[in-house]
Amino acid sequence: MKYTAGSLETVARTILAGFGCDDNEASIVADHLIRANLTGHDSHGIGMLPMYGYQVEDGNLIPNQTPEFLPAAGAIRVVDARRGFGHRMALLALDHTMEAAREHNVAVLGLRNSGHVSRAGNYSEYCAEQGFMSIHFVNVWGHAPLVAPHGSKDPGFSTNPISIGIPVAGAATPMLDMATSTVALGKVRVAHNKGEKVPHGWILDHDGNATDDPSPMWALREGALTAFGAHKGSGLGIFVELLAGALAGKETVATGNHIPRGVFNNMFSIIINPQGFDEQKAIEARVMEFYKSIKDGRPMSDEDEILMPGEPERRKTADRLENGIDIDDETISQLLSTADNFKLDSIQIKGTLKAAG
Asked: Is CATH 3.90.420.10 the classification given to domain 1-64+309-357?
């Protein structure tokens, strides 16, 4: 079923208000989640709300939290989110760090002890809108690791995403947003909810063999996700863990406590003022000259097109704004169940959903 983005955002805000989020926080989180759906990253979209609900029930995700801004150390800023909703905590921490970048032309952020920050690309886009280049590394702790390092049958770190964006005319162009695993765990959740198989190469079973069944991994956490690109993705995932967890935060998957239904993030970000290097227009001209040189290359076939990082998301957003966002019935059922758990009127919430088209 395809639903309008606006009706899904209304549902998200209503459920978040049921969690105890005030209007500002509910709007920030709902906007972030629906943006993820619009870009085609359903793994980080509205389907995350049931997990957030469990965490709120457990006291491991705190609505309307006030972060702690630790004393500055030169151009380094450290912010303890105190387990607040990561979507708002990350924006507050980035605003704090961009103030330092305006002074020093570069600043480094360590965001620690945060609730789930969801789609990392949102933060590259946010920084680019304010004229900054940014690089973000996010590790995940609170639960057992999910991704098998190259050569291992056993998981050793989590999906550990990386996002990089360069501002051109106030937008991240290009913009890289990727997990260091072959896929995000949320894509396994989506396949499980739809009753679909996954491509071989995404998941290893308990014995280290490739499998196309997402259910043991999602429902039982048996097996492991694979790192993309064999040893290369594995190496990047390891260093994301070290930068975000061991350096910027205080927890890696090895040191962090495993908490039932716990999902916490640390984020290591580098914020750069491009004008510390050259005039903005000159930098943008060079970026777009290179951008165009890639786009003008010969595609592998007449049916193919060379896409730059960020283009698939922009195109998917345009399509889904026009034609709606596809949400499977199981995810809708989970959202309504979450609403019931927080004493909301799930029938009324279901009635606010509008089919697209």
From this structure: no
The alpha carbon dihedral of 192, 197, 203, 208 has a sign of positive
The helix/strand/coil state of 169 is: coil
φ, ψ dihedrals at 316, nearest 5°? -65, -40
Alpha-carbon distances, residue 224 vs 44, 150, 189, 199, 219 (angstroms) = 19, 11, 14, 14, 12
Domain ranges of the chain: 1-64+309-357, 68-180+228-274, 182-226
Q: Which residue has the tokens 């946010």?
A: 126
- pTM for this entry: 0.94
| Spatial separation of the C-alpha atoms in residues 65 and 67, rounded to whole Å | 6
Interatomic CA distance for residues 52 and 327, integer angstroms? 18
What's the CA gap between 284 and 171, in Å, rounded?
Answer: 11
Residue 52, classified by CB atoms within 10 Å of its CB into exposed (0-12), middle (13-18) or buried (19+), is buried
Confidence of residue 51 (pLDDT cuts 50, 70, 90): very high
Residue 17 tokens, joined: 């208000």
Whole-number Å distance between alpha carbons of 6 and 235 = 40
Fold of 68-180+228-274: Ribosomal Protein S8; Chain: A, domain 1 (3.30.1370)
Strands 147-148 and 224-226: parallel
Burial class (CB in 10 A: 0-12, 13-18, 19+), 153: middle
Integer angstrom CA distances of residue 187 from 120, 143, 250, 303: 15, 18, 28, 26
The Cα–Cα gap between 178 and 41 comes to 10
Q: Return the closest-CA partner of residue 244 out of 222, 270, 218.
A: 270
Q: Which residues of 317-349 are buried (b: 16+ CB within 10 A; e: fewer)?
A: beebeeebbebbeebbebbbebbebbebebeeb
CATH 3.30.60.50 fits 182-226, yes or no: yes
What does the pLDDT look like over 84-96, one tens digit per residue? Answer: 999 999 999 999 9
Q: Is the pLDDT of residue 260 over 90?
A: no
User: Do the strands 171-178 and 162-168 form a parallel or antiparallel pair, or are they unpaired?
Assistant: antiparallel
pLDDT tens sequence across 212-225: 999 999 988 899 99
